[in-house]
Design brief:
Its main location: cytoplasm. It contains 20 helices and 12 strands. By secondary structure, it is an alpha/beta fold.
Length: about 450
């Protein structure tokens, strides 16, 4: 059996960091087990679904490092849902209901007022053919509900019916079907709810494992029943905790600021996003892993915590900086070239320790190439004049800075910050930055002397 998982976003907007967690969990699980990853667009909402969003989602997933084995679209599979629905109708497991949303809400309100759970009473199942025809004459269209197997032959006499499974993240889980309403699978306009379409697709596509957010735990018992009613083997489920802000707010409310596209545009490394999205809220140390293979090695669903995974965007900067600091020139080379940066490996290795983003290298390249806004304090003017006179002869090398500052220290008595800071300011215009012994050879003798007034 080939392990097969899926990620099924709706192309009604851009995906954000919260969406990336289930996408990455499914991808990593597939890679760890030699399996397949299906990207399946839930695009049956024709009014809100747009191709531009589907294209954006594909682009964002590929930027993260997720390469789908196949891409499916639910809008192309309506005939399979029709056939499955007919199977359930023929078995007497799908029945029409004619209540309006307002009528259903009034009924739920009465049940709550009486201290009862607002579970649907299967009134639609009691209706005669004549009553249904009367509703049709009024112009009402039915929605269709699935009869949950929470009874022993009489659907109006429910009893506790436990569905238990061993969850990949949460261990043994149990839900009681008697505490639930029969789910609506077909809307009054004839469109299928995601719950039903997803199950039909999971069966057809051989999905073996369903890994998703913990907000779907209560749905799992219902889905067990539908899988079995369609004569299919139930997949293995795993429900991971959800990413929230540090204040516990759902990330979906802030998805604009934390969309994958916006994170990419800020210049972040995809592996900083992947590392934080995957490891936050687990027993594993959150660290910047350089490759997806390294993340696959560390990934473990059993390490997922039961508590929420609090996501702090500030941590992205820290992780990203670690990745940049360790990034080999061979990895950065093409990107530096695209930024118009030269200097080769010597430049990159000199400045990468001071970069949070690869694009930060531009500022240091401008310092190397010049011109710079040199800064000289009044108290340092005489010292800088002496510095120019004491600049070592010959080629500028990694030893030049040490020789120069040693000579100046002996001549002027300056040391520490008073010795080094005026030189850094006049040559770079900055108070801090890469090691001057590495910068000097890159700047070159003539530009150094030109910057010393």
């Amino acid at each position: 059996m080939t392990i097969t998982v899926r990620f099924a976003p709706s192309p009604t907007g851009h995906i954000h960091i919260g969406n990336s967690r289930p996408a990455l969990y499914n991808w990593l699980f597939a890679k760890k087990n030699g399996g397949r990853f299906v990207l399946r667009f839930d695009d049956t909402d024709t009014e809100r679904s747009k191709q531009e969003y589907a294209d954006s989602i594909e682009q964002d997933l590929r930027w993260l490092g997720i390469q789908p084995d196949t891409i499916e679209r639910q809008s192309e599979r309506i005939a399979s849902y029709d056939a499955a629905a007919q199977t359930l109708k023929d078995a007497g497991l799908l029945y029409p209901c004619y209540e309006t949303p307002e009528e259903l809400e009034r009924r739920r309100s009465r049940q709550r007022a009486l201290g009862r759970p607002p579970v649907y009473d299967r009134a639609g199942l009691k209706q005669t053919e004549d009553e249904r025809k009367a509703f049709e004459t009024e112009g009402r269209k039915p929605h269709w509900r699935f009869v949950l197997p929470n009874h022993q032959g009489d659907p109006f006499s429910t009893q506790r019916t436990e569905v238990t499974w061993e969850d990949l993240c949460r261990g043994q889980q149990t839900v009681d079907l008697a505490s639930m309403s029969d789910p609506v699978l077909i809307r009054a306009d004839g469109t299928y709810l995601y719950t039903f379409a997803s199950i039909v697709d999971d069966i057809a596509m051989g999905i073996t494992h369903i890994i998703r957010g913990e907000d779907h735990v209560s749905n799992t018992g219902v889905q067990f029943a539908i899988f079995e009613a369609l004569g299919a083997k139930v997949p293995i489920f795993g429900h991971h905790n959800l990413l929230t802000t540090v204040d516990g707010e759902g990330l979906s409310k802030r998805k604009g600021a934390l969309s994958i596209g916006s994170l990419r545009e800020t210049g972040l490394e995809p592996m900083s996003v992947c590392s934080l999205a995957v490891l936050t809220g687990t027993s594993k140390a959150v660290e910047a892993l350089p490759t997806m293979d390294a993340l696959v090695e560390k990934f473990d669903l059993t390490s997922v915590s039961r508590s929420s995974a609090k996501f702090d965007p500030e941590e992205l900067k820290v992780l990203n900086a670690r990745l940049v600091h360790d990034m080999p020139f061979e990895v950065a080379s093409d990107r530096l070239k695209d930024l118009g940066i030269g200097g080769g490996a010597a430049f990159w290795e000199a400045i990468r320790g001071n970069c949070e983003l690869v694009s930060d290298a531009r500022g240091y390249w401008e310092i190397v190439e010049g011109p710079v806004q040199s800064r000289v304090e009044d108290d340092d003017r005489e010292f800088i004049a002496q510095a120019k006179a004491f600049f070592p002869e010959g080629d500028v090398s990694a030893e030049t800075w040490g020789a120069w500052t040693s000579a100046l220290k002996a001549e002027t008595g300056r040391k520490g910050r008073g010795l080094f800071m005026p030189l850094r300011r006049v040559l770079t215009g900055l108070d801090h930055g890469p090691d001057m012994k590495d910068l000097l050879p890159l700047i070159g003798r003539q530009k150094i002397l030109d910057r010393l007034p």
